[in-house]
Structure formats: structure tokens, C-alpha cells
# Entry
Amino acid sequence: MDNGSTVDENHDVIDLELDRPHSARIYDYFLGGVTNFPADREAAARAIGAFPSALIAARSNRAFMRRSTRFLAQRGIDQFLDIGTGIPTSPNLHEVAQSVLPGARVVYTDNDPIVLTHARALLHSHPDGATAYMAADVTDPAALLAHPVLRSTLDLGRPIALSLNALLHFVTDDHHDAHAIVEHLKAALPSGSVLVVSHATPDFDHEAIARLTAIYQAAGTPLQTRTREEITGFFTGWDLLDPGLQPVLRWRPDPDETHHTLTDAEAACYAGIARKP
# Structure
């Protein structure tokens, strides 16, 4: 089979459309990965031209994933549902969680066939824990929650960390109700579960983010950044954990991270965690 197609879990051949830019591969480029192609690099260059801090924003978000996962594992959360996984970039979420709790169980999910081709990289679990990957779409939360892989890997009777990192800004109001989708997912989780969200925002540099949004839309990827108030709405009914919803650089920064040299406008993202009462 040529390297422009893959086979999904139903053994159907899927065209990966390597001649068109793709958000997962653009993000991979921003993170310094190698799973990207000329169309992706050209789109990434246009994005960087519109928003020169795009690499900083992507890498700041990735650092938040590591910090938040470690924070939760250190507090005993040992089940994670990561929606919108993206192309694997080590350390992946399960590597961080299992470095603290070797028995942690992680389900990764994405609707992107590009991620499917790299899913095996996500499945190298610590022997005491488990990792699994499933193809599913956050815009159909009922089907996602009913997926047999999720049901066989996680115990929905115990607390679960629902990770929605850098995902919801790709769920636009023109096509879906992002807040209703998140409420559906939250309702399925037991008391003590947590919601982890990072989300792009125009609050710190509206003009630059507007230019970036136009670049993504021109590349065929809908993008909707949201204000602090709009992002806070995703946590409705749950208790925000200290320090609350913060610019991503300010959410429990590690002492050895170089965040003191960066600005909120460069990271262009809010992040927070809330617990279900």
C-alpha cells in the first residue's frame, strides 16, 4: 500500500490526503515532529506568518498536558480519557501518568485516520496499567461513550480524568454545540472525576488570532477561539481546582520551565481543571 493511504479498524482503505494540509500534522510540525508533509509545512509557515508565536503556543499547551497529568496522577487519579489525541509525541499522556502511577489506565481517541496509523505508539503501556486507542468523534459523544474499547478499559464507576486539550477550538458553533457536547460527556462520569481543558483564546491579541483563524479556515480546518468567559462555561457545575482557569503559562508552572521569558499573548491559551462534586 502506498504511504498516502491507510486501513481503518473495519479494514477499509482511507485516503490520508497528504497533498492537503491537516491540523494534526500542522500541530506535529509546531511540536518539532516528523509526521508532516510539504502541504502541512506550507500551511504551518502561513500560520507562523500570521501568528509568529504559533510554535510557542503549541509547545506551551503540550507542557500543560504534562503538568496537569502529573498533578492528577499525584492525587490518585488513575483513569484518563484523552479525546483529540493527535499524532503521538513523547512523552505521551500515558507515559506521564504511569511514571507516577504504573497502574494507570488510559484510553486515547481521535476521529483522524492519520492518528490511527500511529496508534501503536500509544499502546506501549506499563505492564501494571493499560492503554488503548479507539477511533471516535467528540461531536458524537453518545457513540464515543458507548464504544467497547472505552467500556473494557476504563471503569465508569470510578473517577476519570476527561482530557480535552487543544480540542474544543476545533468544535465550532457553526457546526456543533461545543458546550452541549461537553455537558453530555460530563454527565456520564462519576463524582470525583475531573475535566481538563486547554483552549485557544483571542483575549490577549485579538488581531493576531483573527489572522491565524483565517489561515486555518483557508486550509479547510474550522477554528473558533473563545474568550475566558466562554471557556469557563465548559466547567459549569463542577468545582475549578486551584489556581482556577488561567493563562496556560500560569497554570502551576514547573520551576524549571522557561515560562518567565514568555507572555500570555504568545501562548494564547487558557487552561484549567475542575472536579465533579
The chain has a mean pLDDT of 90.
